[in-house]
Design brief:
Elements: H1 3-27, H2 32-42, H3 46-61, H4 67-82, H5 84-88, H6 94-118, H7 122-151, H8 177-184
Helix pairs in contact: 1-4, 1-7, 2-3, 6-7
C-alpha cells in the first residue's frame, strides 16, 4: 500500500469517528424528555432533576419549546452532510475541517456568555465546552493529515495507463497528408 493510500485511509477513519460523534450528539437532542427521565432514574442530581422537571412540564404544556431542540438536532445532521466533501476530496475541501474547528472554538464563548444568562451552573457549562475541546481534537488531526497528503507528490491514478506512441508510418509528426502529396508530386522546372 502506498503512503498516499495509507494516509487517505487514516483520514477517512478519523473523519468517520468525528461524524459518528457529531451525528450522535445531534440525534440525542430529539428525545430529550425520555433521556432526562432515564438520567434522573440513574443519577440523583439536583440540577438534572430540575432540568428533567422543566422539560416534562414544557413538553406537557408548551411542546413548541422543544421544537428548538429539534432544530439543534437537525443542524448537527446538516453539518455532518458537509463533511462528505472531505471524504470525496480532502485536500480541496480542507476548508470544511477548518470551519468545523472554528465552530468548536465558538462553543467556549457561547457557553461562557449564554450559560450565566440562562441560569446554567458553571460545571454544566464546562461539560458543554468539552464538546468543543474534544470535537476539535479529531479535526486538528484530520487537518494535519490532509496537509501531509497535500504535500505528497501526485501519483499516477491507478486506472491510468501510460500512453504509447502510435506505430511509425515513416512520416514526421509535422507532416500532413497534403504536405506528403505535394512532396511526391514533381514540380515543373522553370524554362530557360
Amino acid at each position: 500500500m502506498s503512503e498516499r493510500s495509507a494516509l487517505e485511509r487514516r483520514i477517512r477513519a478519523w473523519l468517520a469517528l468525528f461524524l459518528v460523534c457529531l451525528v450522535l450528539s445531534g440525534v440525542t437532542a430529539f428525545p430529550l424528555v425520555t433521556e432526562l427521565r432515564w438520567a434522573n432514574a440513574l443519577v440523583s442530581n439536583e440540577w438534572l432533576q430540575r432540568v428533567g422537571d422543566g422539560l416534562i412540564r414544557a413538553d406537557a404544556e408548551y411542546p413548541f419549546l422543544l421544537y428548538g431542540t429539534d432544530w439543534l438536532a437537525f443542524a448537527h445532521l446538516v453539518i455532518a452532510v458537509f463533511f462528505y466533501g472531505v471524504h470525496r476530496d480532502p485536500v480541496r475541501n480542507i476548508w470544511i475541517v477548518e470551519a468545523g474547528m472554528v465552530a468548536c472554538a465558538g462553543i467556549i464563548p457561547l457557553a461562557l456568555i449564554s450559560a450565566p444568562v440562562r441560569g446554567i451552573p458553571f460545571w454544566w457549562s464546562v461539560i458543554d465546552m468539552s464538546f468543543g475541546v474534544f470535537g476539535v481534537i479529531p479535526l486538528l488531526i484530520l487537518r494535519r493529515m490532509i496537509k501531509r497528503l497535500e504535500a505528497l507528490p501526485a501519483g499516477v491514478p491507478p486506472t491510468a495507463t501510460p500512453r504509447t506512441a502510435p506505430p511509425s508510418t515513416g512520416r514526421r509528426a509535422t507532416d500532413t497528408p497534403s504536405a506528403t502529396v505535394q512532396a511526391s508530386t514533381p514540380r515543373a522546372q522553370p524554362q530557360p
